Amino acid sequence: MYKSRLQELCQQRLWAPPEYTHRRGGPDHAPLFGATVSVNGAEFENQPSSYKSQLQIYTQKRGKGLPLYQTIRQGPVHSSQFKSVVTVDGEAFESPEYYHTVKEAESAAAKLALMSLPQEASSTEQVPVQPLSYKNLLQELAQKQGFTLPAYNTTSDGSVHVHIFKSTVTFQGESYQGEPGNTKKQAEMNAAKVAFQHFEDGRNNVLSSTVLTRPHLEQGTAGLSAGQQQVKIAEPVNSVFQASTATNHSASGATDHDYHRLVATNPLPLADSAKSSDEDIESCELKDNKLASPEPSTVAEEVNSAPGPELKASDGHRPEIKPSDGHPVPLASTNAVHSTGCGCSLITNRVQVYPRRPDLVLPEGATLLPFSDDAWVAVSLPTLNHRDAELATGADAGRIAPRVWLLRGMICRKIYLVCLLLLLHFASMGDAAYMKYKDPKQPTNTRVKDLISRMTLAEKIGQMTQIEREVASADVMKNYFIGSVLSGGGSVPAPQATPAIWVNIVNEFQKGALSTRLGIPMIYGIDAVHGILTSLGGLVKQLLLKYGQQAFHIPLLHVCRDPRWGRCYESYSEDHRIVQQMTDIILGLQGEIPINHTKGVPYIAGKDKVAACAKHFVGDGGTHNGINENNTIIDEHGLLGIHMAPYYDAIIKGVATVMVSYSSLNGVKMHANNDLVTGYLKSKLHFRGFVISDWLGIDRITSPPDANYTYSVQAGINAGIDMVMVPYHYTDYINNVTSLVKKGVISMSRIDDAVRRILRVKFTMGLFESPLADLSFSDQLGKKEHRELAREAVRKSLVLLKNGNSPNQQFLPLPKKARSILVAGSHADNLGYQCGGWSIKWFAASGDITVGTTILDAIKSTVADSTHVVYSENPDESFMKENDFSFAIVVVGEPPYAETVGDSTELTILDPGTDTIRTVCSTVKCAVVIISGRPVVIEPYLPMMEALVAAWLPGTEGQGIADLLFGDYGFTGKLPRTWFKSVDQLPMNVGDPHYDPLFPFDFGLTINSSQPGFSGAEQLRDRNGRTIYLVLSSVLSVILIHSSILA
Question: For the whole model, what pTM was predicted?
Answer without folding.
Answer: 0.61
